[in-house]
Amino acid sequence: MTPTKKIPVIIDTDPGVDDVLAILLALASPELEILAYVVSFGNTDVNAVCENIYRLYQAVGHQIASCPEDKARFPNYAPDVPPILALGPSGPLQGNRHLARYFHGRDGLGNVSESHPDLNVSFEDKYDAFRANFTTTSKSAVQVVLELLQSREERSITYIALGPLTGLALLMRQHREVVRKRIGKVVIMGGALDVPGNATPVAEFNIFADAYAAKELLCPDSPADGLPLERVILLPLDITNLHEIPFPFYVERVDSTFESTRKPSIASNKQPLIHFSSAVFERTREVMITFGKDALELHDIAAVWCALEHPPDPADTEDDLPCMSPGWVAVRRKFDIERAGEFTAGMLIVDRRIRAQPEQHPHTVDPMDSNLLSAQAEIDDLETPDSDKGIYCIVETPGPEALLRLLTKRVWGMDV
């Protein structure tokens, strides 16, 4: 779907390895207008992920300085109105703080701050160095997002959540009616419905990192207290796991010298942006191989792809199916979210009873295929929101190859 005007987006992110690739795709996507980045804890601490925004923009700047013709490839790198960079929460609403340094490294980018110090930002005055790219602020992320929602046309902004949902939950706690009235669409990468988790056996990391926030937004006690679910699209691991960039493909099409930390990338013999991505991928490749896969899963990249394909529609109502671009399919799934289980915190508890089954699709299970479904015994004092029709979850995209082609062309300028 190609909108007639740019889609204004707020990107809520915890820049780790796949986040920076998702932001690069956003910078290279003419369909989008980036209004703000809200950076929060998640893959690592909030100060480190903020530094990664600077690293990313510095790499794109070096690429354009080296190859001026590439400026056209990144229409959102130095826009007329730069986006705002706002610091989000440093921890969850409740409970212990969990980070994903085991995968993303201490700095969030595979420890490039140590292995590739040339990628560190050396500018003494970062504001002056990056003022054409983004604007820093002393305002809270909640205040920044509130002002953007109030300043733009009603239901025009898409909120892309690539990390824990803490910041969005704080916004809802303080300005629920404004958000429910004015938000256009919320695209969330998070959760695991019918597949194992990646943070625990049953939980995906973004939901696990702040299950209380996810519960408040997606499964509140009263539907009027949460997000307007007809404007929410969830991309769980069930669909994002299927989208990846195989590292042998990256070697063949992008950087023939790429290997791992055993053979670090050398800046002098390749384009700056390729050096940046290769440096970030080195440790990531080694970690993924220990998981049995020589590829990077494109979780956050898939969410940005979904957002640029599906602009908000102010005419959407609670009973309407979202208008999906060709090749995309979403079905409503009903679930609740476990917040404090000893082994199940962050788990999406899917309602598998017949009355809650989604419309049938190749990626969903037919409830009539099983003879083990019990008659339903209702519990009188168990409160269940009877108006909750479920959340739209992406179950089909135009395909992993389509995303790989888009990403490779837009970020690295390589045709596939």
UniProtKB/TrEMBL annotation:
It comes from the Eukaryota. One of its GO terms (cellular component) is cytosol. GO terms for biological process: purine nucleoside catabolic process. SUPFAM superfamilies: Nucleoside hydrolase. InterPro entries: Inosine/uridine_hydrolase_dom (IPR001910), IUNH (IPR023186), Ribo_hydro-like (IPR036452). Pfam families: IU_nuc_hydro. Residues 9-365 form the Inosine/uridine-preferring nucleoside hydrolase domain. Keywords: Glycosidase, Hydrolase. The keyword Hydrolase applies. PANTHER family: HYDROLASE, PUTATIVE (AFU_ORTHOLOGUE AFUA_1G11790)-RELATED, INOSINE-URIDINE PREFERRING NUCLEOSIDE HYDROLASE. Belongs to the IUNH family. This is Inosine/uridine-preferring nucleoside hydrolase domain-containing protein. It comes from Scleroderma citrinum Foug A. The lineage of its organism: Eukaryota, Fungi, Dikarya, Basidiomycota, Agaricomycotina.
